[in-house]
Amino acid sequence: MLLELAGVETFYGASQALFGVDLAMREGEAVALMGRNGMGKTTTIRSIFGLSPLRHGTVRFAGHDISSAKPYRIARLGLGLVPEGRRCFPNLTVAENLLASARKGFWTIKEVNALFPRLAERSGQYANSLSGGEQQMLAVGRALMTNPKLIVLDEATEGLAPVIRQEIWKAIATLKQQGQSILVVDKTLSELLPVADRCFVLERGCTVWSGVPTELTAAIQDRYLGV
Ligand code: ATP
Fold this sequence. Notes:
Blueprint: E1 3-12, E2 15-25, E3 30-34, H1 41-48, E4 54-61, E5 64-65, H2 71-76, E6 79-82, H3 94-100, H4 109-115, H5 117-121, H6 132-145, E7 150-153, H7 162-177, E8 181-184, H8 189-195, E9 198-203, E10 206-211, H9 218-224
Parallel strand pairs: 3-8, 3-9, 6-7, 7-8
Antiparallel strand pairs: 1-2, 1-4, 4-5, 9-10
Helix pairs in contact: 3-6
The structure holds adenosine-5'-triphosphate (ATP).
The site of adenosine-5'-triphosphate has 11 residues, from strand 2 and helix 1.
């Protein structure tokens, strides 16, 4: 397994957010992490990256137990994060933002520009002058520049215009074709399911269902994902 969470329990102070998250994915897979608002998707991602320490359970990545590792060490093992709300350096240019996270490998500015031609056009612009969608492309580009074994996208397309969403989904499909391992959270099932090899559904901080997209029946969607 590339990534394996077993019985993960995470707290914010005294308040427990995760009560037992299990998830496993192999290299080259695209996995969807699903669940209604507040069910623990972001906290699960924070737990993987060492940003919210686990109280119980384990996280293993690429043969390492990272359950209590520091975020910078986890990132160096090959985990790239595209966080909710993006977070690029606002006062650096697009190219500077990309270079700031560069590590050796396939992904260079040239490759990122080929994936997102809009970023190529805005190479010399400051990140704070980009639209939300362009900032999201930059956030994906920054994560790719670390040449991660696994890229994790939290709310991949939330709040973006439809045209931009399409560009992000197209990029995710391209990455998948290239064999990039992907863990993705998004609310648009119609876009998410076609790219997913496997889905994990959270409810109240627990993994309550996992399977391939074709097994995610209307009844299951209604029960765990309906509004
Ligand atoms: P959303 O889709 O709304 O982002 P989510 O599935 O990502 O939801 P989380 O953000 O992981 O859910 O939240 C899980 C639980 O943890 C919720 O009950 C939430 O209220 C709680 N929580 C999240 N962040 C904090 C925090 N900083 N302090 C205290 N509780 C928090």
